[in-house]
Design brief:
There is one protein chain. The chain is of the alpha/beta class. It has two domains: 10-181, NAD(P)-binding Rossmann-like Domain (Rossmann fold, 3-Layer(aba) Sandwich), CATH 3.40.50.720; 187-223 and 252-281 and 306-324, UDP-galactose 4-epimerase, domain 1 (Alpha-Beta Complex). The protein contains nine helices and 13 strands. It has helices spanning 19-30, 67-77, 98-119, 153-172, 194-206, 227-237, 256-266, 295-301, 309-326, and strands at residues 10-14, 34-39, 58-61, 81-84, 124-130, 175-181, 184-185, 213-215, 221-222, 225-226, 246-248, 254-255, 275-277. The strands form four sheets. Strands 3-2-1-4-5-6-11 form a seven-stranded parallel sheet, sandwiched between helices. The longest helix has 22 residues, at 98-119. It is globular, with a radius of gyration of 20 Å. The site of guanosine-5'-diphosphate-rhamnose has 20 residues, from α5. Guanosine-5'-diphosphate-rhamnose (GDR) binds at residues 89, 91, 130-132, 182-183, 192-194, 197, 215-217, 220, 222, 256, 281, 283, 286.
Length: 333
């Protein structure tokens, strides 16, 4: 139900034009929030990526590296909730720009938390943490007490941002918390990520536009959930009485082989005829099994995934077939 104007809550989102930004905005709009995206001025036009909800969200132009600009945004907009989602989320790219990654991931969290503290509002703060922070795990599944052993610059930056958030909660009593999210996918996932790469190529093969899917390590395993479900957990975390961190994932581990086989099956195709392994796409240390133990989220937040792995991939394959048929998506080279 929509809230009346006087009680309408305001949410600020960084990273609003990304996959999670879309699903979170959609959720918050459905709950009657005023949704404002903090977007670099030169990327203002990227709000068009929000498609059907683009004209229902507001954009506040500011660089996430600009501490005084972020302070002004918080002062002016007086948000009830802030969701810090912005990150260069494709993990391998963080090796090319470790410092830029650190500044965007950790710097943004630090600047926003400082702004909330300075303005002195009761703003609730959500930090987008990642299962990548667990890295070289010695136990599976992982929960909120599993130690962090990050293995790449992206994960290290996320750990730093996470601890910065924890420090603000402990030292300044801010309502701040972190969702440690495992892989979460949707038809809006960019095609450099493995799920979307697979579903788009399956759709192209089905329509006779491609005849091959080059893939990396078929034995790599992940906990793949649906982005629409995971953003629901973000919101629920900020509605609790006490701020705490939560591991968010399905609790099911699947291999890239399972992913490929399932996606091809969704299009009635036999994957083994089309898939070729390209070792150039392999990543180091792929033997760690990142899979969630989401019991705390089930118990405290009443959160549960609504889509199975098969349903998620079916949804993505169908959408990619539809997009290719209507010409609304281009195939990557
Ligand atoms: P990930 O997602 O790095 O886990 O990070 P990605 O989809 O890129 O990789 C998942 C797994 O698939 C293996 N893989 C391939 N990956 C890609 N991209 N392309 C391939 O051809 C391919 N073949 C095999 C990878 O090696 C890996 O094991 C995502 C991001 O959303 C992060 O921002 C987020 O923090 C984590 O999930 C949780």
């Amino acid at each position: 139900m929509e809230q009346s104007h006087s009680e309408r809550r305001t949410a600020l989102i960084t990273g609003i034009t990304g996959q999670d930004g879309y699903y979170l905005s959609q959720l918050l709009l459905s709950k009657g929030y005023r949704v404002v995206g903090l977007v670099p001025p030169e990327r203002r036009a990227s709000v068009a990526k929000l498609g059907d909800i683009a004209d229902r969200v507001e954009i506040y132009p500011v660089h996430l590296t600009d501490a005084s600009g972020l302070l002004a945004a918080v002062e002016q907009l007086r948000p009830d909730e802030i969701y810090n989602l912005a990150a260069p989320s494709f993990v391998p790219s963080s090796w090319d720009d470790p410092l830029g990654t650190l500044d965007l991931v950790t710097g943004t969290a630090t600047r926003l938390l400082a702004a909330v503290r300075q303005v002195g509002l009761k703003t609730r703060f959500y930090q987008a943490s990642s299962s990548e922070m667990f890295g070289a795990v010695d136990r599976s599944p992982q929960d909120e007490n599993t130690p962090f052993r990050p293995m790449n610059p992206y994960a290290a930056a996320k750990v730093h941002a996470h601890w910065t958030m924890v420090h603000h909660r402990q030292r300044y009593s801010l309502f701040a918390c972190s969702g440690i999210l495992y892989n979460h996918e949707s038809p809006l996932r960019p095609p450099n990520f493995v799920t979307r790469k697979v579903t788009l190529t399956v759709a192209a093969i089905k329509l006779g536009l491609r005849d091959r899917l080059p893939i990396g390590n078929l034995e790599a395993k992940r906990d793949w959930g649906y982005a629409g479900d995971h953003v629901e957990a973000m919101w629920r975390m900020l509605q609790t009485e006490t701020p705490e961190d939560y591991v968010i994932g399905t609790g099911h581990l699947h291999s890239v082989r399972d992913l490929v086989a399932t996606a091809f099956q969704c299009a009635d195709l036999d994957w083994e005829r089309y898939v070729s392994v390209d070792t150039a796409l392999f990543r180091p240390d792929e033997h760690f099994h990142l899979v969630a133990d989401p019991r705390k989220a089930h118990q405290n937040l009443g959160w549960q995934p609504t889509l199975t792995f098969e349903e998620l991939l079916g949804k993505m394959v169908r959408k990619d077939i539809e997009r290719l048929q209507s010409g609304s998506v281009e195939l990557p080279r």
